[in-house]
UniProtKB/TrEMBL annotation:
It catalyses: oxaloacetate + acetyl-CoA + H2O = citrate + CoA + H(+). GO terms for cellular component: cytosol. This is Citrate synthase. Keywords: Transferase. One of its GO terms (biological process) is tricarboxylic acid cycle. It holds the Pfam family Citrate_synt. PANTHER family: CITRATE SYNTHASE, CITRATE SYNTHASE 2-RELATED. It comes from Streptomyces kanamyceticus. The lineage of its organism: Bacteria, Bacillati, Actinomycetota, Actinomycetes, Kitasatosporales. The active site is at H276, E329. Pathway: Carbohydrate metabolism; tricarboxylic acid cycle.
Length: 395
């Protein structure tokens, strides 16, 4: 775009680490991850403390409005978001076809299509063309229906009828109710709520950054969320909780731990559920979820703790100098399994939480009119290479 009537001068390329590791690309008031301290927060509050003491709706309010609500505002916000859980008729009618089409790939893939349809049916407009209040309303509506869409797609895939949301249940309890058809007991409902709160936001991870890049173009809220869901579907981002449980299954018994882990580490394989690109200490989410799992107890929890202990010891021996601990996925899988969630819904459940963080980041990015447009360093053959003549077609 011209500046003061003249053409803008392209910026000089700046070399940065692969994957943009450690590169600051913008400013945010939503939170931060301090990897060397093992600490992260939502706005000014410890995310773990929020998960231990507040409801999911209260933290949602914090992310969208910048403050924790008092009792009156908390009840009003919870009631408001509960009313938004219900799907438009045209979206509800299309879900069986979406479920059939995504039968081989699962509810998270179906969510991309269903969420796009929801945004289209509601007439969501590019954020570039609407004011802050309309943007927030769109973001609330889209975030509120994600659990409804995910659970409906899951149940349809199982040959079951979707369960209509209940306005009298909390976000987490209603999610479990729509998935199973039964109101969860308080212990399991609270365990899932704490997991959901702990995963609402976590710095500029791949899906959050994807949402902000799309938002920088001025696109509508749902377009940004669909892009984020696509990024989350990758096994190196949100797809690891079920894979961490697969590791426990593959090991099987305590006496097999050392041999199994050594073989994988020496082969250069990644141990799912261990290591994190940011944390250099124990992941605080893992610590909290370990405690939640401990409340349930049982053989699975004891086995998971023993696997964690032995894996960390073996990694310290074979990869000295590197801090490799469990990440959120390891105990997230254990907690979700204990609460009765099927493995194919582990990553979708992650999405049901992270949609609030994505939406908050979308709203923040919408206030910045600068499009995100980095450069790439070309390493192909030196141009210009003459274009060869078109081949002569034989009649």
């Amino acid at each position: 775009m011209p500046i003061n009537g003249s053409a803008a001068t392209p910026a000089e390329p700046v070399e940065v680490p692969r994957g943009l590791a450690g590169v600051v690309v913008t400013e945010t008031e939503l939170g931060d991850v301090r990897g060397y301290e093992g600490f992260y927060h939502y706005r000014q509050y410890s995310a773990v403390e929020l998960a231990q003491s507040r409801s999911f709706e209260d933290v949602w309010h914090l992310m969208f409005h910048g403050e924790l609500p008092d009792a009156e505002r908390s009840a009003a916000f919870a009631a408001r978001t509960a009313r938004l859980r219900h799907l438009p008729e045209e979206v509800r009618d299309a879900l069986p076809a979406i479920s059939r089409a995504s039968a081989l790939s699962g509810p998270l893939s179906g969510l991309r299509t269903a969420l796009s349809l929801f945004g289209a049916s509601k007439g969501f407009r590019p954020v570039y063309d609407i004011d802050d209040d309309r943007r927030r309303e769109d973001a609330l509506a889209a975030a509120a229906v994600v659990p409804t869409l995910l659970t409906a797609l899951y149940r349809l895939g199982q040959g079951l009828a979707p369960v209509e949301p209940r306005d009298d249940l909390s976000y987490a309890a209603n999610y479990l109710y729509m998935m199973t058809g039964s109101e969860p007991d308080p212990a399991r409902g609270r365990a899932i709520e704490q997991y959901l709160i702990s995963t609402i936001d976590h710095g500029f991870n791949a899906s959050t950054f994807t949402a902000r890049v799309i938002m920088s173009t001025g696109a509508d809220v749902v377009a940004c969320l669909v892009g984020a869901v696509g990024a989350l579907s990758g096994p190196l981002h949100g797809g690891a909780p079920s894979r961490a449980l697969d590791t426990l299954d593959a090991i099987g018994t305590p006496e097999r731990i050392d041999g199994w882990i050594r073989e994988r580490v020496l082969a250069g394989d990644r141990i799912m559920g261990f290591g994190h690109p940011v944390y250099r200490t124990e992941d605080p989410r893992s610590r909290m979820l370990r405690g939640i799992a401990g409340r349930f107890g049982g053989d699975m929890v004891e086995f998971a703790i023993e696997v964690e202990r032995r894996v960390e010891a073996i990694l310290a021996e074979l990869k000295p100098g590197r801090e490799l601990h469990t990440n959120v996925e390891f105990y997230a899988g254990v907690v979700m399994d204990l609460c009765g969630l099927p493995r194919e819904m582990f990553t979708p459940t992650f999405a049901a939480a992270r949609v609030v963080g994505w939406s908050a980041n979308i709203l923040e990015q919408a206030r910045d009119s600068k499009i995100i447009r980095p450069a790439a360093r070309y390493v192909g053959e030196t141009p210009p290479v003459p274009v060869p003549p078109a081949p002569v077609r034989v009649a």
